[in-house]
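Hello again, I could really use a second opinion on something today. For a while now I've been wondering how a particular protein folds. Please have a think about how the structure follows from the sequence. Here's the protein in full, and shout if anything looks odd to you:

***
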Amino acid sequence: MILSLVLLKLLFCLAVSSDAANILAIVPFKGRSHFIVIQPLLEGLAERGHNVTVVSTYPREDSIQNYHDIDLSDEMGPSELNRLAIDDINSKYRSPLKGMHWIWELCESMCHIAYNSSKVQNLIKSQQKYDLLITEIFASDCYIPFAHKLRVPLVSISTFYPTPWLNPRISNPDNPSYITHYALPYTDKMTFTQRLLNTLAVVYGRVGYHLLSDSASYDMGRTYFGSDLPSISDISKETSLILVNNHHSISQVRPLVPNLIEIGGIHLRPPRPLPKDLQNELDKSEKGIIIFSFGSVVRASSLPASIVDDFIKAFARIDLTVLWKFEGTVGNLPPNVIVRKWIPQIDVIAHPNVKLLITHGGLASIIEAVSHGVPIIGIPMFGDQPSNIQRIVGKGAGLKIDYSEINAETVYNTIQQILLNPTYKSNAEKLSRVFNDREMPPLETAVYWIEYVLRHKGAHHLRSGAQNLSWIELYCLDILAFLIFGTTTFFIVSIKLIRILVKFIIK
């Protein structure tokens, strides 16, 4: 029996190694919240026996088999994305249009830094053969020319809700009459004004991205890969697969083409042991725990002193323990408030005593809370956060506080409303059951589809026929024009014939 098990394991290993692929992942965007979504996929592929080379700014602290880092953290330096101040958010990024321009410009600057790195230059000159390229779809496609150079299938991963510029490359339906722009706090039931603004935002996002981000990426591509490089939009249309850190339970129901796969929750994992002092604090907090965190992007320490004081006054009036991620020191803390510069949120939120998450609305935090059935109070700042929070509110699993409305009374009353009304907890648990009810875990799903693309040499049979149409053909504008012209011609001819007939009869 033991011998047969050993033989089966050996055969499995041989099967995996015989199908092992050489995968290049270029994901150097310096946003920690993005990489925590991407890294589990790359590690999962390495564990499956694939040889994975990762260009990033977050190298592993310990090595694992088949996983090879090309570290650009020194070249990239500190990123403003990981240290955003509240005042900057309010003045520069809160508007969806300003936010799109800012992130396009930020990513363009990161691309220039990466391409100027000797490590990326060596990669361009290398004769190493690869079987697949993985990139991130966020605010620049500057790395997808590698797919053209290497002549390999392109797989891209989006770390949050699909952007307007993601859908056209695979002809994924994106009807703005009910599919909302990622930065607008609308639902699929919009008023006329909301549909108008949503349509303008979607169109602006597509056109602006093509004219600004794509053009900059094309210029970089021609510089490093030659003047015969196809346009960025042409390369992007060869995308074999897009993995989206999203799930219909926490966003909205929408049509998806076969090569767009939802993997929302891919970064989730079993909780790891907590530091002993923190574990003790959580265990003894029998009345409950509130987690308060603005994630890895927004610095809570940049909150105005008056707002910090409002939070302290509100927390002092409740019986629960508040675990607050705050990068600085806070004076006059009530005994029920614990401040930490960093919170292992994915581990803490799994603790049975956690009753509520107060968050800025980042998608990773939303997913972690939903996964464990924890209600949410959202204080959205920018980007996709207002939309993320609005969807949770719409599903009855949380409430929203506008930043401009923060005061001690509002914070206290909102917390009490969540804690004293069992409907929010019930809805959060219902949402959790729907979110977690999958045919396969998100990581297994992502790995399966990447290996599917490898097995089928790019899986071009998944591509929609819409990718072969111009936008005039796609939206049937030529048919509409023909029908209008034909109908108009028919009525004009008919009226003239009737006039001629009437004149003939009168005579």
